[in-house]
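Box 3.1. Reading complex inputs
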Amino acid sequence: MVEKPQIPSQQPASAEPPGPPRSSAPTSADVARQAGVSRATVSYVLNNTSAVRISEPTRRRVHEAARELGYVPHAAARSLRAGHTRIVLMPAPDVPVGTLYSGFLNEFQWALSRFDYTAVQYGSVGVGGDDAARAWAELRPVAVLAPAGMGRRGIGILQRSGARAVITLGAEPVEGAHALIADHRAVGRVAAHHLRERGHRRIGVLMPREEGLDAFAVPRLAGVRETGVEAVALPVAYDEENAAQVVAHIRELGLSAVFAYNDEYAMLLMRALQDAGVAIPDDVAVVGADDLMLGRLLRPRLTTVRLALPSGQELAEFVDRLVRTPPAGPEIRDVLDASLVRRESA
Amino acid sequence: MVEKPQIPSQQPASAEPPGPPRSSAPTSADVARQAGVSRATVSYVLNNTSAVRISEPTRRRVHEAARELGYVPHAAARSLRAGHTRIVLMPAPDVPVGTLYSGFLNEFQWALSRFDYTAVQYGSVGVGGDDAARAWAELRPVAVLAPAGMGRRGIGILQRSGARAVITLGAEPVEGAHALIADHRAVGRVAAHHLRERGHRRIGVLMPREEGLDAFAVPRLAGVRETGVEAVALPVAYDEENAAQVVAHIRELGLSAVFAYNDEYAMLLMRALQDAGVAIPDDVAVVGADDLMLGRLLRPRLTTVRLALPSGQELAEFVDRLVRTPPAGPEIRDVLDASLVRRESA
């Protein structure tokens, strides 16, 4: 449990009051006056319109005036003219994200900004399906990376609102939208293939009870089964007491190997196995997934499945192409790559 | 290194083409026609205007027509009338976030949505200072949680763009803005106070070399020093080889205790100490921070500093109050609470 601390409120003695917004917010008319040009010229220059030829000195004057006055164009006003913004909307992760995903997000946002898009992450907490789609559509994004759970109707709402590219993220494509497919069966297949090669024919598969992880755990289990090994699903909560019960169950069943869902659950399981006097890998082999640093710090060192995503640059180019020249039909891409990192635990 | 997989592109045989946006996007005029009311009435109903009295059946007719046609109001158009949107902009974390922060973010976004705000996370990768402020201002947020690094000028740009509450997040307030202060000196103080009580007068303090962590590591070190113990800064990279060198250094210096920055660095250090045959806590005591689950899985179990943030509900109320009735001067709040979780490693 996280404690809720008291929040003391302090009033510093000297500081400029932030107050309500000043009424003197600079407008494009102010910029035009200061630069000695028309408002239309200001608009052409600041919106980087290529249709109208404007001399370099004039451009420079407008930019300088805008900077001096602190004028900021209004994305909303631009979007009313264009029918959409330059916003690329994507779901804010609602679970803690690891280094793989956060590194990818950074790179992707940076790459999008170089194409002059604004990457915006939007929480999907407490809203789902059509409600989420309507809330997202209000921002008039030019492109959306939508959770596949948004469904066909939600996708349609976003497309009708002016989004030129709607791309779902998930295990399966959604009709009518482009799709980036993260097929987690591959993770289970890679783990089970290795265990099968090491002679295991019947393996336990940890299935976290924690909310939101089913979306990954279920396909990983299916992937294990695709290799032909017998898979025994072992539900587990992320605490030591529960892990000790799972270990007792593993011994009753006489399982010789476990695919532990990911490296963190593998660490939990290894601790419980070792506390119970079970030797790893001789009595029970363990395979994790994610290739976190902590796997290298365990003894024995953890054998794991490394996941990889495409580069952010590659994905930004994909989005930009779909926006600029929408193809005739949906494009579907597999983005998740899984490979074995063999160490000592299996 | 993360490998970059090839992305195979597939064209599914049967699926409705997503194509460019349909020209038949429903407008408020369509809604008005379908509901048999004026466009003004549609606008009053969908913008929930309280100034105009509209009967419940009419309201219902408008909402039903909007739903049937799939009409979504345009946040940008509303923002042009109001001068700002209902967007609360906050920085997207650019480092992997732990359960504490991601849980807090979820709760905060959910609480904001109940006040009819839209929480939007905005990447700050590759932009800084005034550039970031200008990019953020384009979205015309009604409130901004800005990194303190945005500075006085950036804050001013956001305020002039119409943001009614600009609240910085950081170790120090920024002149002219409200501030949520996360004072990480408290974390170092709590760790060092415990070690001091256990008789340690000279302790090592791990200082991660990884980018972006200085902002937390430097104040934590300062907090250690505030307790009167002698602190020896030990720069460390997050890999085993470097950790082994740090252990050699700890032995040369004859240090009897280390504050390890956080639980993950504590795990790295404990592994390197144990691999070198150093007993924990008898030869060297170790304190982490964050109270992650992995600390409970280490042997000996990790003594750590637990951090706590205010509830998301509390913070959403704070933001809403600043937006609705901007106070005369800036409000400054301490939000970080630190407390010791004593286990076996120190």
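In summary: Residues 185-308 of chain B form a domain with the Rossmann fold fold (CATH 3.40.50.2300).
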